[in-house]
Amino acid sequence: MRQSNLYVILFSVILTVVLGGLLAATSQGLAPFQKKSVELDTKKQILGAVMTLDDDADILAVYDEVIESEVVDYQGNVITKDEEGEPLIAENVSIEKQYKLDPKDRLYPVFKFMGENGGETVESYILPVYGSGLWDSIWGFVALDTEGKQIKGAVFSHAGETPGLGARITEPEVQARYKGKELYNEQGELVSVEMLKGENNPESKLDAHHVDGMSGATITGDGVDAMLKKYFSYYQPYFEKQGPTATL
Amino acid sequence: MSTETVEKEVKKESEALLSKRRRGLINDPLSDDNPITIQVLGICSALAVTTQMKPTLVMSIAVIFVVVFANLSISLMRKLIPGRVRIIVQLAVIATLVTLVNEVLKAFAFDMYKELSVFVGLIITNCIVMGRLEAYAMGNKPYDSILDGLGNGLGYAWIILAVAFFRELFGSGAIFGYKVFEAIGFSSEGWVGFDYQANGIMVTPVGAFFILGLIIWVQRTKTGYVEH
C-alpha cells in the first residue's frame, strides 16, 4: 500500500500543499517587517556614502534630517509626479525595476546631502548605481561633489558575489579607494573611474581615474567600472542643469 | 492468551525523560561522534562562515533549529513516508525550514541576512541534516529524534564556534567585534607600544583548515579514535 503509485502521488501532493502553504503564510506575515528592514538598509547605505554612522544611531531620524531627495528623468529635468499623477518619492523608486527599462525611460532618484546638521545648501549629491557583477546584481550609492565631478564617497553591495573575492566590494577599505577620484579628464570628457587588475598596484598607476583592484575579483571589478560609467553618464544632464559652474 | 503475553513483553517500562541512553544521544555527537571532527560532515560551512563569531553564532542557531525540527517532522511522518520518495520528502522538509530561517533573518536581522544568506541557503545541502534524517529520524520516535538533532546541532555548533573564536581573535584581533588585543594594551598608546598585526591567513578559509586540523588532532589524541 505504501509503495503504490497512487499513494506516492497523493503523499507528494499533500506534502507540497502543506509546505507551500506554510511558506506562503510566513512570507505574507513577515512582508511588512522585511519591507521595513529593506528601507532601513537602503537609507543606511545612502548615508554610508557620505558619513560614518554609529551602531546605535537612529538611521531614519538622521536620514530625514540630512537628506533631501528628488527624481529626475534622462534629460535631467526634475519630475514630481508619475504617469498616474501621483507624487513621486525618490526613496520609493526601485532602482532594480528601473534598471530593466530603457535608460531613456528610467526614473533617476537624486539624494541631496545637506550637511551633517541638515543645512540649507547641498554638500553633495548621492546617486544610486546598479549593474551586474560576476554572479548576480551589484549596486551602490556614490556621493559626488556639488559639481558632479569628484567622488566624495561610495558604498557598494551585491546579491551573490564570491565571499572573500568579489564580495569585498562591501568592505569599507575597498570603498574608501574611490574617495577623491575624478570623473572627467582634462579635456572635459567623462572617463569615470576604473578598477585596476590585481591588488597592491604601484602608486604611479593609481591616478585620478584609477583605483587599486581586488585580487581574484577582476570580473566584479569590471562590473563596478561599467556600472559607474553608465550611471555617471545618465546623471550628466542633471548636473549640467544645476548651474553654470557645472557646465564649465 | 498468547498475544497478551507477547504484548506484555514488548511493553517496556517507560523511560526517564533524560535517561542514560537519551543523554548519550546528546553527548555523543559533542565529542565521540562529532559530525564535523569525526564524521567529517558539514566542512564547507565550517570553513566559510567562521571568520567572525557573530555570523557563526547565527549560523549555529540556524543549523540547530533546522536539524531539530527536520528530525522531528520526519520522525512524526516516518510511518507515512513512501520509501521510494523519502529523500525528496526529506529535502522538501529541510528546504522549507531553511527558507523559514532565511525569511525570519530578512525580517529581523537584515545585516545577518545579507552576510549569511548564501550559507543559510546551503544548510539544505549540509550533509549533517540529511544524514541525521536518513540515519536516525526515519527509524526512531519523535522525542528521541529531537534529542538526536539537538546533539548533532550542538556538536556542529561548538566546533564552528571554536574555529571562529580563534579565527576572529588572530585574524581581526577581536571577539564578537570587541578589540581584545587593543584592550590589553596592544596599541600605540598601550604598554606594548605598537598595534596588533592581524594574521591574514586566519581570515582566509586556509586558517579554518589549520584550526580544524588542530582540534581534530587534540580530540583524537584524547579519545584515541582511529579511522579504519
UniProtKB/TrEMBL annotation, chain A:
Alphabetized HAMAP family for the sequence: NqrC
Function field: NQR complex catalyzes the reduction of ubiquinone-1 to ubiquinol by two successive reactions, coupled with the transport of Na(+) ions from the cytoplasm to the periplasm. NqrA to NqrE are probably involved in the second step, the conversion of ubisemiquinone to ubiquinol.
Family per record: Belongs to the NqrC family.
Assembly description: Composed of six subunits; NqrA, NqrB, NqrC, NqrD, NqrE and NqrF.
MF-aspect GO terms: FMN binding; oxidoreductase activity, acting on NAD(P)H, quinone or similar compound as acceptor
A UniProt-annotated Pfam family: FMN_bind
One Gene Ontology term from the biological process aspect of the record: sodium ion transport
Domain of life of the source: Bacteria
Keywords associated with the record: Cell inner membrane, Cell membrane, Flavoprotein, FMN, Ion transport, Membrane, NAD, Phosphoprotein, Sodium, Sodium transport, Translocase, Transmembrane, Transmembrane helix, Transport, Ubiquinone
InterPro entries registered for this protein in UniProt: FMN-bd, NqrC
Protein name: Na(+)-translocating NADH-quinone reductase subunit C
EC number of the protein: 7.2.1.1
Domain FMN-binding: 133-235
Subcellular location: Cell membrane
Enzyme class at the top of the EC tree: translocase
One GO cellular component term noted in the UniProt record for this chain: plasma membrane
Membrane topology recorded in Swiss-Prot or TrEMBL: Single-pass membrane protein
Organism: Marivirga lumbricoides
SMART domains: FMN_bind
Modified residues (FMN phosphoryl threonine): T218
Reaction(s) the record says it catalyses: a ubiquinone + n Na(+)(in) + NADH + H(+) = a ubiquinol + n Na(+)(out) + NAD(+)
Entries under PANTHER family matching the protein: NA(+)-TRANSLOCATING NADH-QUINONE REDUCTASE SUBUNIT C (PTHR37838)
Cofactor requirement: FMN
From TrEMBL, chain B:
GO biological process, one term: sodium ion transport
Catalytic activity: a ubiquinone + n Na(+)(in) + NADH + H(+) = a ubiquinol + n Na(+)(out) + NAD(+)
Signal peptide range in chain numbering: none
Record-linked InterPro entries: NqrD, NqrDE/RnfAE
Compartments it resides in: Cell membrane; Endomembrane system
Keyword Zinc applies: no
EC number(s) reported in the record: 7.2.1.1
GO cellular component: endomembrane system; plasma membrane
Quaternary structure note: Composed of six subunits; NqrA, NqrB, NqrC, NqrD, NqrE and NqrF.
Protein family (similarity comment): Belongs to the NqrDE/RnfAE family.
Name listed for the protein in its UniProt record: Na(+)-translocating NADH-quinone reductase subunit D
Organism listed in the record: Marivirga lumbricoides
